[in-house]
Model the fold of this input.
Amino acid sequence: MNNRNSTRFAIARSGLSVIAIAVLMLGLATCKVPFGLGGAVDLEVPTVRITSPQTDTYFNDDFVVSGTVADDLEVKTLIVRVLASDGTLLGSYPATVSDGSFTVTIPAASITALMGTVTLEAVATDANSKSAKDRTF
Done:
């Protein structure tokens, strides 16, 4: 009789295991919340490239800085910095990012501070704070 009760217990236990696995699989199949590392893992730093204006361009009015930007997941911010020839920061302007490109208008009011040769630097940052830069000289 003891042997028979052990067999019933083993069958009942394996039956519960099958039910628990089935419930877990059903839950995972219908759940919309990502599990594990999430929907996607951020493996790459962003890429950024200034395409306009070209080197040795002169401005007397507002001017637009534009370029391309990409990331394996999402570009969170893109800032265009204007640097003096000695590297001093003269201005910082948040760009609009859309469909793999960015634009920002540097206002004419800033031009007096931008007299002389300057460097434009675009800094793209993704949601995990990975960043990349591109500069014009």
Remarks:
- The longest strand covers residues 75-84.
- Residues 83 and 129 are 22 Å apart (CA to CA).
- The chain has one helix and eight strands.
